[in-house]
Specification:
The protein is of the alpha/beta class. The chain has nine helices and eight strands.
């Protein structure tokens, strides 16, 4: 891997509950039936880590219900990485969706990368944290974590043949990010269909400064080590791997 992280999403706003499930705070999730798009999904690892470390939720008490969110999801043997420990995970049938189960109260809550349609069109679905944006900003102020969803990797054999390519790719991605931010700030014509885009940019820069969407290993070491801890706690790894063994060294660079 090279320490480029093109996708980041705060996740407090991606936890949804059935209004009739008696869930008023995060601890109420204990002992409940909770839907998850894919247990191994990065978004899910982050949500569980936040619930455990920020709200002291005992994850081992939860009955996990896995399946497609707004459309049925067939099994994917190539991608369905399973925990090393036997957990209480039930996979719904191919003609069911977590969205429908949540609206009907057959599951108590759901979290994942996709927003359930019933939140917009149904009667019984609400966010666990209606004030999620304030919680996410406070979370960032305290931890410095803007949750990473993806990174970029290079094929091992290609890297060994052309070891210079990792640093070249890193510099290219850093330049691309700088260009994207510059274009987003252009006031002559907005690049995104957000009426208050420039206020959003100003808010991001006030909160994150020059660390917004940070690339580089050292700038992201604390968040990567926390994520590695979550993988161990959630039984995907028996012990943490060294971060430096995962990312190729970048000798010298400037953004």
């Amino acid at each position: 891997a090279i320490p480029v992280f093109p996708s980041r999403v705060f996740r407090h706003g991606y936890i949804f509950t059935n209004r009739n499930a008696g869930i008023t705070d995060a601890k109420d999730l204990e002992g409940k039936r909770v839907g998850v798009q894919e247990f191994r999904q990065t978004a899910g690892v982050w949500v569980r880590g936040i619930l455990q470390h920020e709200f002291d939720v005992d994850l081992d008490t939860i009955k996990w219900i896995e399946g497609g969110v707004n459309e049925p999801r067939p099994p994917d043997d190539d991608m369905d990485l399973r925990p090393t420990k036997m957990l209480d995970i039930e996979v719904i049938s191919r003609d069911q969706t977590l969205n429908d189960l949540l609206e009907a109260g057959e599951i108590d809550a759901y979290y994942g990368a996709r927003r359930p349609q019933a939140f917009d069109t149904g009667q019984n679905v609400s966010r666990l944290f209606p004030n999620y944006r304030e919680l996410e900003k406070d979370y960032y102020r305290r931890t410095g974590f803007h949750p990473i969803m993806h990174t970029i990797v290079v094929r091992e054999e290609l890297y060994r043949e052309h070891p210079w390519m990792a640093e070249s790719l890193f510099k290219a991605c850093a330049a691309s990010k700088a260009m994207a931010l510059q274009n987003m700030k252009y006031s002559g014509a907005q690049r995104l269909m957000l009426p208050w885009l420039f206020d959003e940019i100003a808010e991001m820069e006030e909160l994150m400064g020059d660390k917004a969407w940070a690339y580089g290993l050292e700038a992201n070491r604390p968040i990567l080590e926390a994520f590695m801890q979550y993988l161990v706690e959630q039984h995907f790894l028996d012990e943490p791997s060294l971060i430096d063994d995962i990312f190729t060294p970048i000798i010298a660079w400037t953004e």
